[in-house]
Amino acid sequence: METVFQQRLEAAAQATEAALERLLSRAPAPGERARPARLVDAMRYAVLGGGKRLRPFLLIESARLFGAEGAAVIDAAAALECVHAYSLVHDDLPAMDDDDVRRGRPTVHKAFDEATAILAGDALLTIAFDIVASADASPDVRVGLAAALARAAGVGGMAGGQMLDLDQDASWDEAALRAMQAMKTGALFAFAGAAGALLASAPTGEQDRMRRFGGHFGAAFQLADDIDDLIRDGAAGRPSLAALVGPEEARAMVGREADAALALLAPFGDAGEALAGAVRFVVDAVS
Amino acid sequence: METVFQQRLEAAAQATEAALERLLSRAPAPGERARPARLVDAMRYAVLGGGKRLRPFLLIESARLFGAEGAAVIDAAAALECVHAYSLVHDDLPAMDDDDVRRGRPTVHKAFDEATAILAGDALLTIAFDIVASADASPDVRVGLAAALARAAGVGGMAGGQMLDLDQDASWDEAALRAMQAMKTGALFAFAGAAGALLASAPTGEQDRMRRFGGHFGAAFQLADDIDDLIRDGAAGRPSLAALVGPEEARAMVGREADAALALLAPFGDAGEALAGAVRFVVDAVS
Asked: Cys-Cys link to B86, which of A159, A187, A231, B124 (CB 3.0-4.6 A)?
């Protein structure tokens, strides 16, 4: 029997996929002249037909907690997934992580070419801001989403975290690894939580609560992913918190992040069950 | 004696430079954890200390025509220059145009490395949306700027134009070259004009007038640049309208774009002198 979490994750994935199909069609939007087919194809290849859509799920369920649902919520979720997909396309490039395969398929620069992959990433990042700025919400909400997304994705967020991760000379103690991961992966999860509350025009205190929820959830998720890599491949890969402290202590860290995330959900009672189920799913995955 | 155009261009460059210095400081903005020094340095290297700041000038003078000036106008000009600088950083990459030198200095991937250049471009594009979304203007204006900037820069604008330009198999007739240039360089100039009017909350008809002004100005500017390349290097470079039709006909085209631009300024009389001077400057440069 499917849990509420699994049902909602599936529903979020389907809604996000449909929105991306619509938003990444080849027809030019008003104010655009044309959308070159090759670039649209590379953008669609990067963002459609794969991925758990975990960040959209977080955004959509966070919005639901405060009573917001509908087109603007789904569009914001699609925009967030465009930013996530762009980061994967650029991270996979030869000059970065040089990965040929992602989710069992050739990476974008392998399926197309490097120039197209760079431009497809650029265009996915750019269209995310078009999507949130054009969403069916008040100007206040739209501009809040655009600013928060830019801060989460930029020099002080995801892009900055990737820069830190590439530093060959860094001395990775626990604090440095936590700070890097909080930027590289945590920032978009934190945005997902906060954006949901923002879309409902929830009080800033509640937006902050959901930002912190997303941050703890993202940290637990990243730790679980790193534990998985560690058990599968040994400590040969990138520096990670799990590799530094070992799988046992890393599992304890997942538990602590999960507890912090669940505590933030407590006031919502049963209404928080889908998000709580997501937290427990991450914990179960490493148990 | 300096013309009004030259005085205003110099003033716009100084104001934009000061805004970029402030916006690209190393101190994290609220909501950011930290700004990695190497990434900030690469962003600053890309955008500070060079360039005529022609796009900021157009935006600032377009705003002035409708009575807007001040911090929001300068910030929007700085954001536009961040987008322009990002496009140069990515276009210079080995997988794209593979240029080692720009404005007499090593390109970003030469001065730093390829991964840093990719991230610096990404982060410059991203911070542009933070800047316009956080500007000291109404939510309506800020969200209008963000949406228009995304459409101008994205798959249906500048990034799409760069994709078309990279197509080795394209058959470049006059219509195809015009369409490509209108996206690759024209879209940001058109944004500059429209954004100025938008910042003043001018009627949409006037925003559209200034968008068309920017488009004609951008076309004249690009043609003049291509004529310059053609005379200096012969037709060995990229396909261009000037190379296709030859320098004489290209000069006539500059004249026609300039006339169209000046006609759009006519209703403003003397108030349009700085922008009109910019148009005449481009015409004089190829005469």
From this structure: B124
